Amino acid sequence: MAHPLQLGLQDATSPIMEELLHFHDHALMIVFMISSLVLYIIVSMLTTPLTHTSTMDAQEVETIWTILPAIILIAIALPSLRILYMMDEINNPCMTIKTMGHQWYWSYEYTDYTDLSFDSYMIPTPDLNPGNLRLLEVDNRTVLPMETTIRMLISSEDVLHSWTVPSLGLKTDAIPGRLNQTTLLSSRPGLYYGQCSEICGSNHSFMPIVLEMVPLTHFEKWSSTTL
C-alpha cells in the first residue's frame, strides 16, 4: 500500500505510470550519455594542443554527428509513441464514473448504480483528524475497486479544471460543454491523492482528489451501504 506521508510523489500504482517511469529513466540515461560525451570533447579540446588542422575538416566525423542524433531521436520517439497509444486506449471498462468540476470542489456519479453520487470537498485545516494530510484530505473519498478497468468521464460546469492523480499517471482536462474520458487501473489498494492542476480561480489549490482503491468485495459492501 502506498504510504501518503511521503516527501515526494507517491509510488506508481498503475501499469501506465510504471511505463512512464521506465520511459523517464530511458530518456534520462540517453541525456546523461550525451552530456558525458559533450563534456569529454570539451575537456579534450581544452587540454590537447591542435597540431593537425586537417582534423577540423573530416567527412567521416560530419557523417557520424549527422546520423547519430537521428538515431537518438528514434530511440526516444518509438517508446514515447507506444506509451501515448497505451494512454489513449480504452479496454472494455467494467465501470464508469462521471466526474464534474465545480468552483471549487468535485462531484462524482457512479453511472452503473442508481442514486450513487456525492460531492467531494476539501476538509478545512481546523477539522482535520490526526494523520490526515492538510489541503489533500476530503470529506467524501472516491472509493473504487482495484484491478478493475474504470472509465472516468470528466467535464466541468463552470470554468476549466484538470482532474489529476500523479500516482496513476492521469491528467485530464475538465472543459465546460465537453466530455473527456480516461481509464484507470490500480494494481494495489491504497489512498492516492491528486489535485486540480488547472488555474481555475482563487481556490484553485483547494479542490483535492482522493481515490481509495479497495478489493472488489469491499467495494461491493461499500456501495450497498451507501445506496
UniProtKB/TrEMBL annotation:
Superkingdom: Eukaryota
Residue ranges of the TM segments: 27-47, 67-85
Cofactor binding, per record: Binds a copper A center.
Catalysed conversion reaction: 4 Fe(II)-[cytochrome c] + O2 + 8 H(+)(in) = 4 Fe(III)-[cytochrome c] + 2 H2O + 4 H(+)(out)
Residues annotated as domain Cytochrome oxidase subunit II transmembrane region profile: 1-91
Membrane-protein topology: Multi-pass membrane protein
Named cofactor requirement(s): Cu cation
SUPFAM superfamilies in UniProt: Cupredoxins, Cytochrome c oxidase subunit II-like, transmembrane region
GO terms classed as biological process: ATP synthesis coupled electron transport
Function: Component of the cytochrome c oxidase, the last enzyme in the mitochondrial electron transport chain which drives oxidative phosphorylation. The respiratory chain contains 3 multisubunit complexes succinate dehydrogenase (complex II, CII), ubiquinol-cytochrome c oxidoreductase (cytochrome b-c1 complex, complex III, CIII) and cytochrome c oxidase (complex IV, CIV), that cooperate to transfer electrons derived from NADH and succinate to molecular oxygen, creating an electrochemical gradient over the inner membrane that drives transmembrane transport and the ATP synthase.
Sequence similarity: Belongs to the cytochrome c oxidase subunit 2 family.
Protein name (record): Cytochrome c oxidase subunit 2
The gene coding this protein: COX2
